[in-house]
Amino acid sequence: MPKRVDHEHRRQQIAAAVRRIAADRGLEGVSLNEVAAEAGISKGFVQHYFASRDDMLRFATTTLRSGLEERITAAPPEADPTVRDLLVALLPLDDAARDDALVANAFLVRALKDAEIAGHFRTGHGQLRDAVAAMIAAARDDGDLLPTVEPATEAGLLLALMSGLGDAVLLGYQTGEEAVALIDLHLSRITATPRKTP
Amino acid sequence: MPKRVDHEHRRQQIAAAVRRIAADRGLEGVSLNEVAAEAGISKGFVQHYFASRDDMLRFATTTLRSGLEERITAAPPEADPTVRDLLVALLPLDDAARDDALVANAFLVRALKDAEIAGHFRTGHGQLRDAVAAMIAAARDDGDLLPTVEPATEAGLLLALMSGLGDAVLLGYQTGEEAVALIDLHLSRITATPRKTP
Question: Which terms are listed as keywords in the entry (chains A, B) (predicted)?
């Protein structure tokens, strides 16, 4: 099915151009002209793959989380990442993570007006929250976190904190090191006192 | 100086129109045409008060925090607001607070590309952080919070949490009630054990 593959490849290529422009100058920079130029294809080609700008923006939001997932799963399997590793990977501490955060911010206002985009955001958040909650539950059951920690609630709190810390780093309110120190401060409050080795 | 007053009044009127459009459809909706229509004045009039769209956007960012400050100071002085009151006032739980949060989000990507707007954001954040830190220091010194709480650090952590919770409420990840419960969960971890009355 070469034609089908090519179609999907082109749409991904256009979505990548949308993400780059959105990260650089927000959705106000995402015009047909700019996307065509950024993707290195003609305007007619863009219009062939997307019936409207809204269609293009909606498709682009389905591609937002892949970068994050790649960074999280990039850790070698034997590393057995901790909750802290996962949280630090959520901070915009390198160019790729920074671009992901900028794109998510660029789409936020639109997500509130577009039920389909809001749905993509909620699905992505739900998956991330479930993943964090599962890691918290495992750490609690291993005795690393306090037994009173409720995984789903704590995951919601941590993801809100990470979202805010991400913006704080982008805006220069906190350095990356300060943001990591605040994660550690928060985790220290839910960490169980080390068990004595028998 | 009626002329000077009128000039400032007009600029505020235009900034309010910019904020309403930004809250509704992001900066991508803020064009000369739309602002003039929203403010109920002619395009020429808008151009008379602002040399460029960038000038208009920069001025609008100087007017962002006033709504927040009004809500915080709206509490009667005898109420002696707590840290919790202040934090809850930061959540987008009513239309005014929701619009403030939307406008701040709409300007975020631009703030990263425009040193002047970034400066306005940082100044506003610094003032808010100082205010929260002072309330935390007072609560700690009164014995309400743990003596180990470091006011400036805790204020940074709390404001990041509030920023993330605000987005979570806007996007429907958390209800307002859930967000308030997460604030209470966080505060419970830095609250001193009640002192015995002698």
Answer: DNA-binding, Repressor, Transcription, Transcription regulation
The H-assigned helical ranges of A50-150 are: 53-61, 66-73, 83-90, 95-111, 115-141
pLDDT band at residue B196 under the 50/70/90 scheme: low
Distance from CA of B179 to the nearest CA of A (A): 9
Same domain, B87 and B179: yes
- Please report the ipTM that was assigned to this predicted complex: 0.86
Q: Is residue B135 part of a domain?
A: yes
A152 and A102 together in one domain: yes
Range of the structural domain that residue B184 is part of: 66-188
Among candidate residues A105, A97, A103, the one with its CA nearest the CA of residue A180: A97
> Which residues on A lie below 8 Å from B178 (Cβ)?
156
- Residues A74, A157 within the same domain: yes
Residue B195 within any structural domain of the chain: no
Which two structure tokens, joined as six digits, stand for B119?
Answer: 């400066």
Determine which of A109, A132, A178 to mutate to test the interface with B (most B C-beta atoms within 10 Å).
A109
Q: Report CA dihedral (A144, A150, A153, A157) to the nearest 10 degrees.
A: -30
A108–B112 CB contact, under 8 Å: no
Residue A142 confidence (pLDDT)? 93
Q: What is the pLDDT of residues A156-195, one digit of tens each?
A: 999 999 999 999 999 999 999 999 999 999 999 999 976 5
Q: What is the CATH number of the domain that holds B182?
A: 1.10.357.10
